[in-house]
Structure formats: C-alpha cells, structure tokens
Specification:
about 400 residues, alpha+beta, Porin, 2 domains, two-stranded antiparallel sheet, TPR-like_helical_dom_sf, TPR_rpt, signal
Length: about 400
C-alpha cells in the first residue's frame, strides 16, 4: 500500500506539468486562431486550426472559427461538420445555428436548413425572411420529346410543383404532371387507295406527393405517393405507387436507401434503390451522384445504374452530365417523381442540364436528353431526343 502511495506522489508533478502544458497549448492555439480570424486569413486559419484537433486544445471556440473560415471559403460541408461540434457542446449557440442554416441553404438542402431554423429565436428568424406561408420553392417545367420513328408522334410533358414547410421538421413536395403522345399503329386506305396511319393518343395525368421528416441534423425519413391516370386505345388504368426511404447526411457524402412498390398499369412493381452523393469540395462547384436500382416488374428483374457529374461552369452557371444504363421499362426516378412508363421502353439515356441563377430567387434550367428506345410493336430500336425548360422560384 505504501508502495502505491509513493508512485502516486511521484506521478503528481508529472500530471501537473502535463496539465499545465496542455493549458498553455490551448491558450496559444486560441490566441493564434483569434489573430488569424480577425485578420481574415481563412486558409491559414483552417490549416492552423486543424493541426491540434487530436490533443486537448480541441474546444468549441476553435471549431467555431474554423467553421466560419470554411463557410467563407465555400466549403459548406466542412463548415457544417465544425458547427456540429460547437452545437454538441453549446446547444444554445444561436450564431452557430444560424450559420448551419445558411450552409444547408447554400447546398440546396432545404429540409436541413428548415430543421436548423426551428431552433432560432423570432428576431433571427425575421432577419432571414422565411415565407410566412411556409412556402419553400415553386417550379414549372415543360418539354417536348422528338422520336425518330414515323409511327410515333411528338410527346409533350408538363409539370407544376410546389414545396411547403408543414413544420420545421416536415417538408411536403407536390407535383401535378401531364403527358400526351399520339401512337400510330392502325392503317386504312381512302377511296383512292392511298394508305394512311391512324393514331391513338396515350394520355397521362399524375399527382405526386413527397413528405420528408428530418429526424436530426444527419438523418431524414422520406415517403412518397404517385397516382397515375392513363388512357390509351379506349382503356383506362389507375396506378398507385409508394416509396419509403432514409437518408444520411455526412461531411462529404449523402447516402440514401429506399424501396418503391405498387401497381403500374396492371403490373406489380418493386424497386430497390441505393444512392450516393459526393461533394469533394464541400459545395456545388463539383459533385457526383451514383444510383443503383433493382427493378422487379411482375417477376422480371432488371439492374439499372445512373451516374451524374455536375460542376460550376461560369459565374451563376452550372452544368450536369448524366447517363442511365439498363432496361428502364417502368423505371422510377427521383424518389418516384418521374415514371418511365411510355409505350416503348428506354434501353439507355444520357443528357445535359444547364442551370443558370437568374436572381437570388429564380433558377433557370435547360435539359437535353437522348434516349435509345425499342418499338414494342415492330421490335426495332429508334432514337428519341427531348428538350425540357424549367424554372424554380425559391422563397
């Protein structure tokens, strides 16, 4: 017992000196970080501040300064990670919470921004000027599809959508969709013996609703419902589709897994999706989206893979390149918003989307899409080109 006491007495000076050195190191780190912060030397602050993260000089004030430096230099993902540390230690830090809101907003993560806004006081909420009616975004898009097939007329697509904040953790997205295309299949001859094609119009009217519940700053649960009313060749079909999924928001990646199921024009459908979004720069200046799907259509399984790459081209201008591989017959895309159930299945598609920020609130987008399709009546392949113009208004 005396031996143990002796060891403790001998160790006390070492413990004291170690604690003193750690305290001095912390004071030095904070002092240098404060100087760099006040001087606006953001890159040097990030470099300096990240060095002592493994030792005892790791404290909220330092994380706050580094988070601000990341935010100012445009690495919003890294900034969010730093402010997370601050809020875990100091939940009442309203400035860190406000910066979390802005970073999510800059990443177009409206649900994440709304979650952070729910913790702000009334005065701060008034300063960020949220819509008093809970409106988040409104958008419209219209497109034309031009098939290289003399038995298919041009197709026309329209969609109007609105996103609303039901509560700080709930966001509801709704869309009303219309699609029309005349399909030429039957022949007849007039009294002079001339041959003509007789067409039937494939018409669809659709309603889509997607609800997102933000569990915390990392996890969200999503659910969607899609109703489709289809008329073709004198037959009417009513289709109902649902989706359940979960998303995880990380420092440089976002992950999502979901399952779709339902009945689509008389066919039982199940689709399993896994998606990964990657932001290597922590912002929208460069990003990738990878999505793998297994589609089970009345027992027939297909594997479908989508890859998109986007980057900032010029000031206020972004471009995104995307391609989808696999049999997309009745394929569901974008959380079930887009349903590829045209009369002829798509075997491959690729396209370019140009985004232009017209103003603080308005985002214009122009999309070109190439599709390789198969004529189900004649078993031949043909090409289809589509152009879609849309605009999104952010409240």
């Amino acid at each position: 017992m005396e031996y143990r006491k002796l060891i403790i007495l001998l160790a006390l000076p070492f413990i004291f000196l170690t604690a003193k050195a750690q305290e001095n190191n912390r004071i030095l780190t904070d002092s240098i970080a404060e100087e760099l912060y006040n001087a606006g030397d953001w890159k040097q602050l990030i470099t300096w501040g990240n060095k002592p993260m493994a030792d005892t000089s790791d404290f909220p004030a330092l994380h706050f300064k580094i988070g601000y430096a990341y935010m100012v230099t445009g690495n919003y993902k890294a900034a969010i990670n730093q402010f997370d540390f601050v809020l875990n230690k100091e939940p009442a830090n309203s400035t860190a919470r406000l910066y979390q809101y802005y970073c999510n907003n800059y990443l177009n993560n409206n649900a994440g921004a709304s979650y952070q806004a729910g913790y702000l006081d009334k005065e701060t909420l008034h300063s960020i000027k949220l819509s008093p009616f809970g409106l988040v975004t409104a958008d419209v898009e219209s497109g034309i599809k031009l098939p290289n097939n003399n038995e298919r007329d041009n197709g026309f697509f329209e969609r109007a959508g609105i996103s609303t904040r039901l509560w700080w953790r709930f966001q509801l997205d709704q869309s009303y969709i219309s699609f029309d295309q005349k399909i030429f299949r039957e022949f007849y001859r007039d009294r002079y013996g001339d041959k003509f094609l007789f067409g039937k119009t494939d018409k669809q009217k659709e309603y889509f609703a997607r609800l997102q519940f933000t569990i915390n700053d990392k996890l969200s649960a999503i659910g969607s419902y899609h109703y489709i009313y289809t008329t073709f060749r004198g037959k009417t079909d009513y289709s109902n589709l649902g989706l359940l999924g979960i998303t995880y928001t990380g420092q440089y990646v976002n992950l999502q897994g979901d399952i779709n199921w339902g009945n689509l024009i008389g066919k039982a459908l199940k689709q399993y999706d896994a998606k990964l979004d990657f932001y290597p720069l922590g912002n929208l200046n460069f990003y990738t989206t990878s999505r793998a799907s297994v589609l089970d259509l009345s027992g027939v399984k297909s594997f479908i893979y989508n890859q998109a790459i986007g980057f900032k081209l010029l000031n206020n201008t972004w471009i995104e390149t995307a391609a989808t591989f696999g049999n997309e017959d009745d394929y569901l895309d974008n959380d079930g918003l887009y349903v590829y159930n045209s009369i002829d299945p798509t075997k491959f598609k690729a396209g370019e989307t140009l985004f232009y920020q017209v103003s603080k609130h308005a985002l214009l987008r122009l999309n070109y899409l190439y599709e390789k399709k198969t004529d189900i009546y004649r078993d031949i392949n043909y090409n289809q080109n589509s152009v879609t113009l849309g605009i999104t208004w952010k409240f």
